[in-house]
Amino acid sequence: MDTKYMVPTATINERPEGYDLKFVIPGVGKGEIDLDIQGRTLVLKTRTSRQNPAGFRQVAAEFECGPYAVSVDLPEMADPATLKATLENGILSVAVAKRPETQARRIEIA
User: Fold this and answer.
1) Is-cis flag, bond preceding 26, omega within 30?
2) How far, in Å, CA of 97 to CA of 75, rounded?
3) Closest CA to 64 of 4, 21, 11, 1
4) Mind listing the pLDDT tens digit for each residue in 40-97?
5) Cβ neighbours, 10 Å, residue 25
6) What's the rounded Cα separation, in Å, for the pair 87 and 25?
């Protein structure tokens, strides 16, 4: 059977020194996340084994608990070697710095 994935809600912000990406993946633990970089493409996939407790039947849900999958092409200025990720309260935060040669810098006049 083919696995059907949901696309997580995502936010991508640029700052002078890099980019911040946030993915909403409720109900997913650190050990259930595959986060890979392929060239400039960030690939996120999750696996979940959530099941209702014995004797319970879900009748309504405000959100789903995955599995999730999404690919994001990082900007040319991003340096994939600097990727850092954290998971807290169902939010996966990924930070990536801009390549040093693409960052603005002040030129001192001699």
Assistant:
1) no
2) 11
3) 4
4) 999 999 987 666 678 888 777 766 676 899 999 999 999 999 999 999 999 999 999 9
5) 25
6) 9
